[in-house]
Amino acid sequence: MGEGFVESLPALAIAVFVLFLTWITARFAVRISDMLVGRTDIRASLKTLVDTLVRLSIWVFGIFVAAVVVIPELTPASLLAGLGIGAVAIGFAFQDIFENFLAGVLIMVREKMRIGDVIECEGITGKVEHINMRETHVRKLSGELTIVPNSILFKNPVKILTDVDQRRHEIVVGVSYDTNLDHAADIIRRAVEGVDVVLASKGVDIFAHEFNASSVDFLVRWWAGSTPRSGWESKDKVVRAIKSALDEAHIEIPFPYITHTFKETVPVSQLGDMRKKTP
């Protein structure tokens, strides 16, 4: 065994040198790939996928050459046969890892959900900062970083809040029952259209929505920026504008009323006298 090990040292040294060359080649190949891809309008997620595939292909070839140097009897056919048997065992052992890997490839290939989008999935709402082959980094609106396995984003519905630059927002406004609804709707419409962040060109919808306990409710819808902050800012300005306009028009925004009714009671001591007087 010692003599065999000594005899294999030159082959092992050559194999290590081949792996070193593979490492250098992979680094230069990725740089060249970045230069070529950088001249195109390819998405950042696809760029990451191309770099990973280039690096993986070079390493697979380099490892195969190093294996042939150490084991001259190794042929491509025998290597593929061994990989086929090993892939089954590895697939069962690392099922979740391969699932996330394939999900990452598919997420990078599809056009939706780019880096910078604000998404909502499985109770997680935040901005996509990075997508790799196994996981996606989502920065929550409160600042925390959430690392989400790609399989979760691939198998579950994902709401992309910033897929377009504008989206529709809505609030409910209640007016008292003695209010002229047409007049109130006109005042609310003019107040919303006068807000600077509202896209009045896309229309403002005012619908008499519901008979509530103390009010008739209007559903007010308008278009503004699609980011969460844009939505909050537009709602803040719309609510302030509607409140001010309704106050100027002396239209009440009611709150729940509670009416207490008290019945007249007879003392227990008088019940006997009342019975005696009754014929």
Automatic annotation (TrEMBL):
Main location: membrane
Any single GO CC term annotated in Swiss-Prot or TrEMBL for this entry: plasma membrane
Membrane topology: Multi-pass membrane protein
Database matches in Gene3D superfamilies: 1.10.287.1260, 2.30.30.60, 3.30.70.100
Span of domain Mechanosensitive ion channel MscS C-terminal: 170-253
Mechanosensitive ion channel MscS domain ranges (all copies): 96-158
Function: Mechanosensitive channel that participates in the regulation of osmotic pressure changes within the cell, opening in response to stretch forces in the membrane lipid bilayer, without the need for other proteins. Contributes to normal resistance to hypoosmotic shock. Forms an ion channel of 1.0 nanosiemens conductance with a slight preference for anions.
Protein name: Small-conductance mechanosensitive channel
Organism: Qipengyuania soli
